[in-house]
Amino acid sequence: MKLGVIGCGKMGSALVEGAIRSGAIPAENVSGCDAYPDAAKAFAAATGATIVESIPELAAETYLLCTKPNQAGSALAALPEGEALLISVAAGLDTAWLEAHVPAGVRVIRCMPNTPALVGKGAAAFCSGKAATAEDAEVARLLLGSVGIAVELPESLMDAVTGLSGSGPAFVYMMIEAMADGGVRAGLPRAEALKLAAQTVLGAATMVLETGLHPGVLKDQVTSPGGTTIAGVAELEKRGMRAAFIEAVTTAARRSAEMGGS
Beta-strand (E) ranges in the chain? Predict the structure, then answer.
């Protein structure tokens, strides 16, 4: 597979670095194009890919669209006609819009990655356009899965994905900050409190993923009768922690729909 990357910023670099590192594609099969020379140079240095000056020069079998949404129309207009796959991570552009802007013969897959992909811990979802094949879906799964996990979902659920895994890192960062503040209030130095809070969230998330146990079961395993944890859990319940997180995700999803996500 020859991969052409349109927009060589952080997300494009992360996905390509992950794909190369995992052996999904060799660096010599990747080329990139960006309107900003510094971004293109950084992409080439990080990935070993070739840089070209225009989109038609990419001459790829698969294109990865990583531009800002308002730059996507002009970028897609520059694609050559012919059989090819376009994988878009441009936020808010649904498959119908993408299909209306690509040349004849180009199949479309829409993706919603998140920023932890930059450290190989991404959570992404994707949906296929009308002409995309099962093989195309596997290509998307391979690329996105090289920097985390990737799930295929109906396009009608992409706004929900935006609210959960797209916006979710910000909610978790707030939780880590608040936990660290609690540690400081209890007497811990700031730096140590932050490290302990972040590692606690990382460890707990890993337990959920690797054990396959429901979070409620894992919570109960930590919660002794009359102990410290149940005292803290009761306080979180009293202050509406669950409801706040549920509302944060659903409000973000609703805002995505208002902005034209799906």
Answer: 3-6, 30-33, 50-51, 62-65, 84-88, 106-112, 122-128, 148-152
